[in-house]
Amino acid sequence: MAKATVLVIEDDEAIRELVAFHLSRAGLDVLEAADGAAGRRGLDGADLVVLDWMLPDTSGIAWLRALRSGERAATPVLMLTARASELDRVEGLEAGADDYLVKPFSAAELVARVRALLRRVRPQQRFVVGSLSVDVEAARVAVRDAEVALTRREFALLAFLAGHPGRVFGRGELLDRVWGEDFVGTERTVDQHVAQLRARIGPARIETVRGRGYRLVDA
């Protein structure tokens, strides 16, 4: 999965660099902006924004409200500010902040909150079930580090099952979730693709649950 990019909008250079340092050390890419205008220019490359309240050219609240009314309205925002009263927290959240953290802050808590927000908007792209790994972004499957070649539909089916290990899915549900509701075919199609997957990744990895469907297990 490609690194997530966090845009830090903070006019205090020391704090901005400290936040960037901790986020970078946590494996994230970081963009920095010292005011609201620079923050707006950096938005296109950002998956998440860490936003200060007091900025030299605007307030964080005004910046946030403008964001929520624009094309990037869904971008998650963590407000990081010294304003600690209950009224301030409520105002920030009602303006559209997804989370609110008060300075001085714990680096571990900052990283944990950022990661939690990113999980909401960047679903997991790599699944590991025992010795089986499925990298959705790279379209790569490996068993014990040996790459396995799959067709596009086989990969889609395996990736879906790998995203829900141990959970049983009926044939009709798999048709809807993997092939799509508009697919014209029968549940036999699922059986055929499961058989093909078993031949490629090992027969024990996809269990048949009698009367219910299939599930991916650690085998």
Question: What topology emerges from the helices and strands here?
Answer:
Blueprint: E1 5-9, H1 13-25, E2 29-33, H2 36-42, E3 48-51, H3 60-68, E4 77-81, H4 86-95, E5 99-102, H5 107-121, E6 126-129, E7 132-135, E8 140-143, E9 146-148, H6 152-162, H7 171-179, H8 188-201, E10 206-209, E11 213-216
Parallel strand pairs: 1-2, 1-3, 3-4, 4-5
Antiparallel strand pairs: 6-7, 7-8, 8-9, 10-11
Helix pairs in contact: 6-7, 6-8
Nutshell version of this structure?
The protein is α/β, with parallel strands linked by helices and 219 residues long. Helices cover 40% and strands 21% of the residues. The strands form 3 sheets. The chain has a 5-stranded parallel sheet, sandwiched between helices. A 4-stranded antiparallel sheet has the order 6-7-8-9, with helices on one face.
